[in-house]
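Q: Here's a chain of 139 amino acids. Please give me its 3D structure as tokens.
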Amino acid sequence: MNTAAENLQAMRELLSDPYKWAKGALVAVTEDQRDVRFCLVGSRFYAYQTLDDLRDEDDKCFYEFVEEDGGEESHLTNDDPACQILAEVILEQYPEKFERMKNPDVFELITHFNDPESTKHDDLMRVLDKAVVKASEQI
């Protein structure tokens, strides 16, 4: 079973290269279509796919499929341990970014941290480093 720490470490490894980080999109393909970039939530999808061989059947996924308007859509859930820890660390490190938000959910916190121009790659790595440590301490 892959743990929150393993997922966060996979996210950290991917996003350690600033050119792999995206803002405003889960996944972004460069104009020349030679490279793919991920936002924090997109990197979670990447980690889920990458660690697929380690996943138990009982592992909860962080998204679910829901029937809507005659079709099936995937929706992010708030019960993914890796994303919960990430959101906690973001709130601890950058509370001022969320003062005006009322009851944001996990993915709103992550997105509102990732996407603004004021968030730099160093901020991203600081949050991921602290999240990996926090998740490792919970094992």
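Q: Can you summarize the key feature?
A: Confidence is low (pLDDT under 50) at residues 53-60.
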